[in-house]
Design brief:
The chain is α+β, with helices and mostly antiparallel strands. The chain has helices spanning 3-10, 20-27, 43-59, and strands at residues 14-18, 63-67. Strands 1-2 form a two-stranded parallel ribbon. It is elongated. The mean pLDDT is 82.
Length: 80
C-alpha cells in the first residue's frame, strides 16, 4: 500500500456511537408516551431518531457506526 493512500485514509474520522444510552433514555422517560396505530410505544425509536437527526446535522460525519447493548430484561417487560 502506498504511503500517500495511508495518509489519506488516516485523515478521515470514523464515528462509533454507543447508541443504547439514547434508546434507554427515551424508553424510560416519564410523562406522555407516544404510541403507534397498534398501540405499541414508540418513545425509544422516536428518541433515538431525534438524537440521530441532531447528530447528523451537527457533525455531518462521513463514516458512522452504531453499537447497541444486548438487554435481557427491562423494568417495563420483565422475563418470566
Amino acid at each position: 500500500m502506498s504511503r500517500q493512500l495511508l495518509l489519506h485514509d488516516t485523515a478521515k474520522q470514523v464515528w462509533l456511537v454507543d447508541s443504547s444510552i439514547y434508546v434507554f433514555r427515551a424508553w424510560f422517560v416519564k410523562g406522555n408516551i407516544p404510541y403507534d396505530r397498534k398501540q405499541n410505544p414508540i418513545n425509544a425509536v422516536q428518541g433515538f431518531l431525534g438524537f440521530l437527526y441532531a447528530f447528523l446535522h451537527d457533525q455531518q460525519p462521513e463514516k458512522l457506526a452504531f453499537a447497541f447493548d444486548i438487554s435481557l430484561q427491562t423494568s417495563k417487560n420483565p422475563k418470566n
